[in-house]
Design goal:
Blueprint (H helix, E strand, L loop, with lengths): L2 H4 L7 E7 L4 H11 L7 E7 L4 E7 L2 H5 L2 H4 L6 E7 L14 E5 L2 E11 L2 H10 L11 H9 L5 H9 L4 E9 L3 E6 L8 E4 L10 E4 L3 H5 L3 E5 L5 E5 L2 E5 L9 E2 L1 H6 L5 E2 L2 E2 H15 L6 E4 L4 H12 L7 E3 L12 H5 L1 H5 E3 L1 H4 L3 E6 L6 H12 L4 E6 L21 H4 L2 H8 L3 E4 L2 H7 L5 H4 L3 E2 L1 H4 L7 H4 L5
Parallel strand pairs: 14-23, 17-20, 20-21, 21-22
Antiparallel strand pairs: 1-4, 1-10, 2-3, 2-4, 5-6, 6-7, 7-8, 8-12, 9-10, 9-11, 12-13, 15-16, 18-19
Amino acid sequence: MTQSDSLNRPYEECGVFGVWGVPDASALTALGLHALQHRGQEAAGIVSFDGERFHQHKGLGLVGDVFGDSRVMATLPGTVAIGHNRYATTGGTHVRNVQPLYADYEFGGLAVAHNGNLTNSATLKQALVKRGCIFHSSTDTEVFIHLIAISLYTTVLDRFIDAVKQVKGAYSLITLTPDDGLIGMRDPLGVRPLVLGRMPGYEQGNGGWVLASETCALDIIGADYVRDIEPGEIVVINNDGLRSLRPFGDQGGRFCVFEYIYFARPDSVLEGQPVYEARRQIGCELARESAVEADVVVPVPDSGVPSAIGYAAESGIPFELGIIRNHYVGRTFIEPTDQIRNLGVKMKHSANRPVLAGKRVILVDDSIVRGTTSRKIVDMVRAAGATEVHMRITSPPTKHACFYGIDTPEESKLMAATHTLEEMAQAIGADSLAFVSFDGLYRALGHANRAEGARRYCDACFTGDYPIELVDKEGKLVA
């Protein structure tokens, strides 16, 4: 993926995974990370604990690239392990930023894997550096490492709670310690996901525990879903079993609504809501709200597929795979000249000409960020012979930047923030353009309207209603 590509649509935050009390914990963690690959493709890492020592391996690239060698897995023994897939939202793509981060303390080792973004990391980092803390990475996750180190509390768990009470932002964490075992947590508003599972055998009391960003990671290792970790909840998993703490009380929840639109895998279930069904229902709402005469409904793969199925079913217009995605495209391996960059979309998507030629086409996609990719896809469909191209988007217009762990450009570079709907349609070359309404989005998620649904979800990228204080932005300290 080129840098220019990464700014043309929102990209995932990160994926976290942890297991406790299972043989070959690192191998299961690698499988879990493989299922969470969609949440981050830049790097992967695993830290394991064998009862006496920590072991770690990290690298740039996909999970299969980093952990595909059995000799690497042999260096990660133990029945406890945590892992991380990285998509950089803060800090650059360097090995020093690859998680889990590990540190040796006076009480022993500690590793932490983090999904999300801290909105006061730059402010905290400035204060920590003044106290003499030395940072070895540019990721906001390292703030947790130093806050735990300087805490005056005695136990590791109390130090952990002391640290998380000082940070602001959207995050899910999995921490590995010698005595407390696994510690999992979601931020007080539960913006980022984290689910709890158990391995087979738990009915007899000998099954291991699993923490993961999504339920699809439980499925790949045969674990049973138990429940979602609640907003602000800390779970501690060790030889004494599972213990739950709620140091923040009940502050409600503002789960990221974009998980349903784009980020999560369609076979996951988050907050009790099947992602596939949510996307299909959004497509149905789009068909009701913005019907247009056409011959075929075509998804922009992959996130547009369930919604296009819903749109086709509701409208009665046939669903067709008019665009084929190349699933084997990784980073751009050719020098990105202007000519190659302009051909980049064809590396990822190609037109299915027999389906499109001579047809009025409805294209269903998840979002428009800068609009560059949408323009290329519309042009590709027209070049394949489509007589009309109508774009339908399964999210409201993205008008605001995300500060909670999603890679989006600043507002001045978001097309919906600087163009009217008509201007956007003209800019991407579509005959018509429509976004799902706020009420339509929340109806698809089982709520009467946005007024009801917005009390449960964060939709700041659409509305500018940021539920968590943007400390660094307001103080002009942006890491």
